[in-house]
Amino acid sequence: MAKRNSVSREQMRLIAKALADPRRYEILKQIGAADVASCMDVRGCQSVSAATFSHHLKELETAGLIRIVRKGKFADLVLQRDVLHAYLDHLGKI
């Protein structure tokens, strides 16, 4: 079994803050349902402005939950499962 990353206290705070927003939680679930999610596809399922969607992605990226892979003017979104698992492992020790 591969060793999972650990998360710092600050990253724990950022992840908790990111996941506390229902829209970001839904976006994360949508990204996680695919190996690689097209930013346009995920955006198309959200009823928010492009600026608000971008803000939500930035919060998820800052927390380390997603990686944004830029391809010219397009982007793919990748769930950082190791970070999510490390966060959940840490919560499990409470």
Describe it for me?
This protein is of the alpha+beta class and 94 residues long. It has one domain: Winged helix-like DNA-binding domain superfamily/Winged helix DNA-binding domain (Arc Repressor Mutant, subunit A, Orthogonal Bundle). It is built from 5 helices and 3 strands, in the order ααβααββα. It has helices at 9-20, 22-32, 39-44, 50-62, 81-92, and strands spanning 37-38, 66-71, 74-79. Strand 2 (66-71) and strand 3 form a beta hairpin. Helix 1 packs antiparallel against helix 4. The two termini are 23 Å apart.
List the helices and strands and how they pair.
Blueprint: H1 9-20, H2 22-32, E1 37-38, H3 39-44, H4 50-62, E2 66-71, E3 74-79, H5 81-92
Antiparallel strand pairs: 1-3, 2-3
